[in-house]
Amino acid sequence: MRVYAIGDIHGRDDLFAELLDLIEADKAARPGADCALILLGDLVDRGPSSAAVIDRAIVQRDRWSAFHWLTGNHEEVFVKALTGDLSALKFFSRIGGEETILSYGIDEANYARMTYEELSVALIAAVPAAHREFLAAGEELIILGDYVFVHAGVRPGVSLKSQKPADLRWIREPFLSAGEDFGGFVVHGHTITSTVDERPNRLGIDTGAYASGKLTAAAFEGAERWYLSTGQ
Fold first, then answer.
1. Other CB atoms closer than 10 Å to residue 86's CB: what's the count?
2. Would you say 20 and 4 are in contact if contact means Cβ atoms under 8 Å apart?
3. 125-180: per-residue pLDDT in tens?
4. Coil, strand or helix: which one is 110?
5. Which of 3, 21, 104, 151 has a C-alpha 20 to 30 A away from that of 178?
6. Residues 223, 27: Cα–Cα separation, whole Å
7. What's the pLDDT tens digit per position in 88-109?
8. How many CB atoms lie within 10 A of CB 173?
9. Greatest pairwise CA separation for the chain in angstroms
10. What value, to the nearest 5°, has the Cα angle with vertex 132 and ends 20 and 99?
């Protein structure tokens, strides 16, 4: 099997569409393998088109031999906000959720004048059931062969089966500077770097798409690994 893993999309549906086209061209140039797609999380926030990103991600489920998506820290907060949790909604709005809320058709002027109580009601009404179901189906950690796919990283010194969701979705240090074997080669997003961050024990592919215009995918097949990205 060949696996394509896409880093943090953050509301850039234009780049998501462009990268999927690049992946389709890569698949056509390398025929003969069953192909899986993994989205590493943080599909939403910051960029202008989070609702459209989720629509496109939903469509992908039936187009691949296997499809997975990982819950990122931004989806975690979004899901909490959709339960009516006003503290989560306030935090969501501060970390790029305003753009997500507007992408669901809530008028910017209305957004500016609403109380959080009013905004909560409007947001819950605006997000369709299909999106709620998709958001509820995100995974925490995926192991395929020697590769471990997570959103943010893993806690060093803790076995993969004992990792906590908070670390899988939010961790930076001490994960990023750890030189140890994590029990598999970890592929992650969450921490922005200008190019892929390839280390002996991990690979970071969040290239800051929402601001840089560079959305990156890593492809894996057997012992081979290669990269595709927008903005090249």
1. 13
2. no
3. 999 999 999 999 999 999 999 999 999 999 999 999 999 999 999 999 999 999 99
4. helix
5. 3
6. 17
7. 999 999 999 999 999 999 999 9
8. 10
9. 55
10. 65
Residues 6+ apart with CB under 8 A from 59: none
Supply 56's token pair.
């496109």
Amino acid, single-letter form, for residue 126: A
Secondary structure E strands in 24-175: 35-39, 66-69, 142-144, 147-149
Q: Which two tokens stand for residue 130?
A: 């299909």
**From the CB of residue 150, how many other CB atoms can be counted at a distance below 10 Å?**
30
Rounded CA-CA distance 43/210 in Å is 10
- In the block, which residue shows the tokens 């931004």? 74
> Do 18 and 26 contact (CB within 8 A), yes or no?
no
Closest CA to 81 of 133, 124, 41: 124
